[in-house]
Amino acid sequence: MADDPAAPDHSAMFGDLCRQVGICLHPKGEARVIAALPRGLDAAVRAALEAEGIDEPSASGDLKRAIRDCLKAHVGKR
């Protein structure tokens, strides 16, 4: 993504996701979330959970909501 100057910078989004929610993704995990964003926030939440090794059905509603709210706060700024 860094090779494409037109690609949005998601570093602040992933920084907040790590600091505020505790989901600190590796570069491959970040790429999965970015790839899922066009399919919607729910798909991006699933990608974040999967990248973190968390089984989505067993994840708490609060965790899913926190991830979604964090992603939405940044995606909405574009």
Description:
The chain has 78 residues and is mainly alpha-helical. The chain is built from four helices and no strands.
Structural class: mainly alpha
Fraction in beta strands: under 5%
Summarize the amount of helix as a percent range: 55-70%
Q: What would you call the shape?
A: globular
The tally of strands reads 0
Q: Report the mean per-residue pLDDT as an integer.
A: 90
Radius of gyration based on Cα positions: 12 Å
Q: Output the number of helix runs.
A: 4
Order of helices and strands: HHHH
Short description:
This protein is mainly α and 78 residues long.
What are the defining features of this structure?
78 residues
Topology of this protein?
Elements: H1 11-21, H2 27-36, H3 41-52, H4 61-75
